[in-house]
Design a protein that fits this description.
Layout (H helix, E strand, L loop, with lengths): L2 E3 L11 H15 L44 E7 L8 E3 L2 E8 L4 E8 L5 E8 L19 E2 L3 E8 L2 E8 L4 E9 L11 E3 L2 E6 L6 E6 L5 E6 L10 E5 L2 E8 L2 E5 L6 E6 L10 E2 L3 E6 L5 E6 L6 E5 L9 E3 L2 E5 L4 E6 L5 E6 L9 E3 L2 E5 L4 E7 L4 E8 L9 E3 L2 E8 L5 E7 L2
Parallel strand pairs: 1-10
Antiparallel strand pairs: 2-33, 3-4, 4-5, 5-6, 7-8, 8-9, 9-10, 11-12, 12-13, 13-14, 15-16, 16-17, 17-18, 19-20, 20-21, 21-22, 23-24, 24-25, 25-26, 27-28, 28-29, 29-30, 31-32, 32-33
Length: about 425
């Protein structure tokens, strides 16, 4: 039987402060000297183990040459129907693909496991048999989070029955534990994905009733630390960044940009200046953090990550839902309205701006010097992106609806798209040479 844990008032407070501080200090000393690593069982060259990929920044592993052009009749290695509805991206590890999905009729929420070579379903585990909540926004779903894997276990967040729950499963689909993170007052919906860091799973759940950000033990689901958040809606996934000489967990939204020590939950710094609602996950160039929001104002900002609160630059570009990409001193973005941009990361000077077309909810992914970006209508633009130029290489249509961000691993592209109609049907495509 799965082990269900209850987030009681005692459990929601920080556990063993002295022990947590000592462990956190030791961890901070160690991690300050090494880059952030993916779990040992995950291969960055061939896996896409979590939201935004192996390095959690929208960058595919170096050396890959994924296809540039494809269509329904060209370049498709396989295509399989996906039951239900979900906006989470595919997660790939070893020979398996994992997807979160929800059945709108039953109001159930599940994890699917597919065979990577063929797309054939290996298993499906119903995590919540009923009471799924898709939120009040027409573009939301009850399965908008992406699965995270450490190579041994799977972790997923679902909004269900008026609360956010994190669940761990093994590779055979057996539920190992389930933890209630907090009650949740539904506004537009819920989309934050779990983030693996060392022995922890980090979860954020901002909402109008007063949310929480918490660290759960990967093995047991025990709440190691938990911090209250403002009573405001927000949708972003925390970012674990190696920036300004230390490991920081950065979260934008609720009118704040907040940095925490991921090992202990200790607040490193916090500044006002974000928008109330954010969706995009923060990125860094090693000195600055870049965040963006879109309600009640459009705002993109570069903030020094040393705790000084100094704003390096800011503008009013609306990069509300798609996350950005920081590479080699430059920041690349695709706006919600379909404009591709490149800025210098230190000054914000715009180097180029080009229109793609359509609305964008999916986040772009970069492989080498190419960016792959899917619009809401199911068209994926492939363009060469360097500080010197933008060059559109191809426009590829699959289905007529795409919310999920692409995953690129092993030289292949995995795209979750849908065909509108009665009934609406989702598909997962594997695109390869």
């Amino acid at each position: 039987m799965p082990r269900f844990l209850d987030s009681s008032p005692v459990a929601s407070r920080r556990h063993s402060p002295r022990r947590a501080r000592s462990a956190g200090l030791a961890c901070a000393i160690l991690l300050a000297t090494v880059p952030i690593r993916v779990p040992a069982a995950v291969d960055p060259a061939s896996d896409w183990p979590a939201w935004r990929g192996p390095t959690r920044d929208g960058m595919a592993a170096p050396g890959q040459e994924p296809p540039i052009r494809w269509s329904e009749t060209e370049g498709i290695l396989w295509k399989v129907p996906v039951p239900g509805r979900g906006h989470g991206s595919p997660t790939l590890q070893g020979e398996r693909i994992y997807l979160a999905t929800a059945d709108p009729g039953k109001r159930s929420q599940s994890i699917l496991c597919l065979e990577r070579s063929t797309g054939k379903q290996v298993w499906q585990t119903e995590v919540h048999p009923h009471s799924a909540d898709a939120g009040k926004h027409a573009n939301s779903s009850a399965a908008s989070s992406s699965v995270a894997t450490d190579g041994d276990r799977l972790y997923i967040n679902f909004l269900n029955g008026g609360a956010v729950h994190t669940t761990a499963l093994n590779g055979q689909g057996k539920i190992l534990w389930q933890q209630k993170v907090c009650d949740f007052v539904v506004h537009q919906g819920f989309a934050s994905s779990p983030v693996i860091h060392e022995s922890l799973v980090l979860v954020s759940a901002d909402h109008r009733g007063g949310g929480r950000i918490a660290a759960l033990a990967r093995k047991t689901g025990e709440i190691i630390w938990s911090e209250a958040r403002p009573k405001l809606p927000n949708y972003t996934t925390p970012a674990i960044l190696q920036v300004a000489g230390r490991t920081q967990m950065v979260l934008a939204g609720c009118n704040l940009i907040t940095s925490l020590d991921p090992a202990t939950g200790k607040k490193l710094w916090e500044v006002t200046g974000s928008t109330e609602e954010c969706v995009a996950t923060a990125v860094t160039d090693g000195e600055r953090v870049f965040t963006s929001g879109g309600w009640p104002r459009n705002h993109t900002v570069a903030l020094q990550a040393d705790g000084s609160g100094k704003i390096a630059w800011q503008n009013t570009t609306r990069v509300y839902v798609p996350s950005m990409i920081a590479k080699a001193g430059h920041l690349y973005a695709v706006t919600d309205a379909g404009i591709a941009l490149c800025w210098k990361s230190d000054t914000g000077v715009e180097l180029w701006k080009e229109r793609l077309g359509g609305d964008f909810f999916a986040s772009p992914v970069m492989a080498g010097e190419r960016i792959y970006a899917s619009n809401l209508g199911g068209k994926t633009f492939v363009f060469e992106a360097t500080p010197q130029h933008f060059k559109l290489l191809a426009q590829n249509q699959l289905g007529d609806e795409a919310y999920a961000s692409p995953a690129i691993a092993g030289g292949r592209i995995y795209l979750r798209v849908a065909r509108r109609g009665e009934p609406r049907q989702e598909f997962l495509y594997c695109v390869g040479k």
